[in-house]
Structures are given as structure tokens and as C-alpha cells.
Amino acid sequence: MQPIVCGLLMALLPVAATAQFSESFTDGDFSQNPRWQGMDTSFRVEGGMLRSSHSQPNSSFYLSTASAAALATQWEFTVHLDFSTSALNYADVFLTAETPQLEAGYFVRIGYTTDEVSLYYKNREGFTTKLIDGRDGVTNHALQLRVTRTSGGVWTLYTDGVEEGKVRDTTYMLSAWFGVMVRQSTASFFGKHFFDDIGIKPLDATPPYVPRRYDVLIHEIMADPSPTAGLPEAEYVELRNVSGKDINLGGWLLKGRSIHAVLPAYKLLADSIVVIASSSNASMFYPSLSGGSSFSISNEGELMVLYDNKGQVIHAVDFRAEWYGGGVRAQGGWSLEMKDVRWPCACAENFGPGGTPGKNNRVEENIEAPVLPRLLHVSVADAQHVRLHFSAPLDSAAASQAGRADAPLFSTLLIGLTVPMTAGTIYDLNVAGLKDCAGRGLPDVSVRYGLPQIADTGDLVFSELLFDPPQGAQDFIELYNRSTKPVELNGLYFAQRDEPGGLKPAVPLVQTPYLLMPGEYIAFSEDAVSVCRHYACLGRLENIAALPSMPQDEGTVVLLRADGLELDEFGYKKAMHTDVFHDTRGISLERLWMDKAAPEPGNWHSAASTAGYATPGYRNSRRAPETAGEEGFRLEPEKFSPDNDGHDDLAFIHWNLPAAGFTFNITVYDAEGRAVRQLAQNVMAGSSGSIGWNGSLENGMPASPGIYVIFVRAYDGEGRVKQWKSAVALQLDGK
Fold first, then answer.
1. Structure pTM?
2. What are phi and psi of 652, to 5 degrees?
3. Which one of 113, 168, 349, 388 has the largest count of C-beta atoms within 10 Å of its C-beta?
């Protein structure tokens, strides 16, 4: 029977049947080029589109044209159903059919109970089978549809560039007709079916270009259009195609905090630009696409991500208001423009204030190559996963050799461990072969890690405070991990102690996991950028939402856990600064001994001038030397110059005694034998330790240059007495 059926089908093929054609209805009718037939009074050409005009309720009507295309073919067409579809109101576009009445073949159904676009076939008995079940809720706008079928019978359906599905079906291998069939119920649906831009052509065997990451860039962002500086008063995002290939944006997603813009089908030509704005503002720009009714961008900055129609990240920009650089342009009316498309992952250095929507950016220039990504810190996801946090995005393909770079910014790398970590063990990790997003190789990364442990009192201590910053900078607080364990910072807080002794509301140090290893420093500021404009930022300096209030004269800061346990407390005073300074603005206080209590006399000193008067996030310029190993006392150095140049600014007295429990009295005498400074009076000391003299007298005034004698008397409860004295030379300006 099969040969007979095929013979009958071939007999039905019209003489004019063709394997390809196009129809845009620009000629004003459908009687020729190509010729359509069927219920021709039920359709008309209006505004360059085929529109329904059937006035019979509860009916179906059709129009068809000859087409023999069935294999290795691509069908494209636009459909707009200007109503909410239902089981009685939808449209079928027959891609292949055996008869002009469209009684059997493959068709795309637009609409139905779930407002979907799906692929079916209909057999000769009139029964239909769904082959591709498309997404629900997509028929509320004009749709650009595309269907392909390979020579092997593999069908693929696309709606606005988004693949709805793929299936192989070879039930019908021939065709004679192409057409549209409309189903309508009541008069409210009359004349609301539109068809246009129909094209049937052989399927291109060359695979379509698949966009890669950074082929299309977020090129310009207008977050604050008011007050206007001559531009339309509307928020927008500009995209630029830098791939050298035409790219269809259909089904792509532009996502922000308050933006979820699914882009319509649009061919973004090579090296061209398009502006995305809200549906009400898109007409203000050219060329432009609607980003939907909700299109709002935070003035302070936010993460903007562009995804392709398969959900892959193409580009992401986490912009900040600080990128404007201050001044009037940061007050509104100016956009942020990308300067150099060669560096799509660069941040503030690659953006500047402008405003050229749809055109080449005003700030376009070749910038210097950005610094390579550097490791910022480590966090632990669980006993078998470590996450490395970098300052800039990595190349995800290169990173895959070591772990997984996390989307959308790819600036964190999750590494799986072959053996789970055990508590109390410090591990070393070396990672090689990493690249930045521009393909530049990074130096090998070496890092310590371990299972995080809960901080106890004294594990983390205050190590440096800047409470009177220079103009244009902010305060900072620095911590030091003096313990032997990795400490998790997430769950720790800063607080200010008020005069009655209570704590004001605490502020969290970090919002996400953050590991601080033994011997590491970290500083926090409300504006890290401003701090780094005034000081060398050679270590870890993190932004914090708010620091405790730190008055310039005196105050108290507290470090505590979420359960209220206080880890360290420091009551600072401006008078703790070195006496050589008449103005201490812009000079931090640094802790000399990490193992001594914060309030212990002489444990804080002004940061050295040679270090720039502050060392945020790294080793203090002032730190006491290690205690002597031999039993007895030792003076270091024998000559000192308390001029705050960072070199021999203090004289240290070290001791190493056979046992703890000695009570100390340490006195400084001038050359005339007069006591001028009491460094320690009845102080209970450990078996080893140090104390320093900064060259100030008992009244706080600086001592004159000359020879001084330091006398130590130590005794314990068993009657043992230790006495020691040594001369020290105090010099100023080399004298």
C-alpha cells in the first residue's frame, strides 16, 4: 500500500510546488507571488500583514500555498494573536500538508489553554500528536517563530530565538502545501489574527554561530537620569556586539536587582549597539529594545548580568556609584560608559561618566592593562571544599583545571579536596595555570586554609585604629589573629561602649564566610577606596556597612561574637599618640605587643612616618622585638631617637626570668640621678616580656637629648630580688 499512497500524494502535488519561498505581503494581496488559496474571503492584507477577517463564530478557516519543502528545511514566520488564547481560540501554522485543506501534516500551534507554542503532527484520520511541548505563557506579544528539520527528520522549534525543544519524527517525509488554520469562538476574536514575514528555505548545513562570553558587552549604564544633562530622562542599559558576527538576541536575559528583561528577537549586527529601556521609554532611544515595564537601576550601583538564551553568562558588571569619581557628574544625568572593550572585566578604571546611548562612547580610549586578579581571602564551604576569592574575574575554562569559577562574576573559585579536612590542622594549597578573563596568566597561588573554628576571647585582637582620619578618608579598625587556629569572621561584630558601660548596637564584620588564618591581619573601613588614596594598602582592607562611632578624643571599641562573648576591647585616647606630634590627624595608633592586654600602659604607639602614618591590613610599623632568650634583662637599642621615623623610636627593656610571679618596678633616671619616668610600678609580670620607653617624661613632655639610666627592680613572694640597670642614649636629629 505504501507505494500507492506515495503515488497518490505525488499526484496531488501542484505544478507550482516549490521547496522555498518568502512572503511579506508588501504587494498588498495574496493572489500571486506566491498564490494563496482556500477561504480567501476570510483574510485580507492590511498594513503589510495578513490579517483574519472571518466573521463566523465557532468556526475554523484556512489559507494555503504550494510548498514541497519537508526535509533539510527552515521555516520562519511572525504571528501575533491580539487576545488571550484558549482551547477555542488559537492558530495552527502548517509547515507541511498533503492537501490544500491542511488535513494532515506537521503544524505549529500558537496558543491553547496554556498560551504555549508547540509542534504537532496530524494524521489522515484527523488525530493530533504533540511532538514538542513549548513553554507556557508566551503568546502575549508578537512572536518570531522558527522551525528547522534536518534531512534525518530531527525537528527543532524556536520562539523568539529560544529553543522550545527538539524531536525526531519521520511520520511524513513529503509535503505539498504550507498554510495557516485559525480557530475562533465569538465575535470578540474576529480580525485579531496577524501573520507576516513568512520564509521557507533550505536548511543551512553550516552550524549557526554560537555566541561566547564577552561577545556582547554591557557597554553603558544610566542609573540616575535626573537631573537631566541633555539626555532623555530615562534609565537604560546599552549593549555592544564586539564579536565580529551578527547575533540574535532573542530570548536573552538582562538581569539586575529590579530588572528581568527577556529580549525579543533582534539581530544585533557585528560591532553595533542597541539600547535596552523600559517599554514606556524605549522609543526615546535608537536603536532600542523594550526591557519590560519594570526597569529600575539602583543609583548606588548593583550587579547587572547578561545571559544568552541558554542561560549562559555573556557579561556581568557589578558597578558602583564611586566609579563616577565624584563631582557634579555623580549627582545625576550622566551614564557610566565603558572605555576599552578589550578589558571587559575591568572595573572602575574602565568606566567613566558620559552619555551617548546608541552611539560610540564618549570616553572610549585605550586604557592600560588592568592589574591581574589577586587572591583576597579564603572561605571554607565544607570539610571537602575551599573557595578562593579573587579581586577580578577569572577565565572559567582555565580555572576548571583546578575547580569551578562561580557565575556570574567568576571571581571566586570553588576547589574540591580529595581528602576531607580535619579540625586543628593547617593545610597548604598551591594552584597553577589560572588566567584572567582576557587570557593573561596569573602567578601561581599559594594559600593556607583549615576548618574554621569559633573565636574565643583573645584569639582576635585590635591591632590598629585610625579614629581621626585625614580629610577625604574614613576611619578604619584593624584586627590580628594571634591564635593558632583558622577563625571564621562571619558571625563576629564590632560595637562601641558608651559612657555608662553599655554596648551600642553591634555591626557585623562580614556578610559571607571569611577565613582569617593565624598571624593574619585584616582592616575594615566604611570606604576602603578613600583609605587607600591616603595610605599604602598592602594587605587586606574590606568595606564594612558601618563602623562603631570613634570620637577623635577618646572612645572604646569592642569585638564580640553573636552570642555576646567579648573577644577584645580597647579604650583609646588621643593622648596615647607620640608626644612629638602637635597634630595627630591622619595618624593611626598601632599595638606593640599582641600578647599583652590592649589597655596595658605603653602597648600603643603612633604609626611611623616612614610607613605613611598607617598600615591598614598588614604588619604594623610599630611592633615590639621578640623577648630575649637568655635569662636576665636586655636593653634594645642602646641609642634611640623618638622622632617617629620608624627607626629606633622606642627603647625596649626585655626580660627572661626563671619563673613567673615577679613584681616589677622600672624607673628612668636622667644624668643628674633624678627620676623622670616611672615605666612600671608594682606590675605583676610574666616570666618573659618587654616594655618600651617612648622618650616622654612623667608629665608627658618629651625628654631632652642625653644619657638616661633605666633601673629595674623585680621581686617575688619567696623573697628573691632581681636588680638591673643600663644606660640609654636619647638622640634627636643625630645628637
1. 0.68
2. -105, 135
3. 388
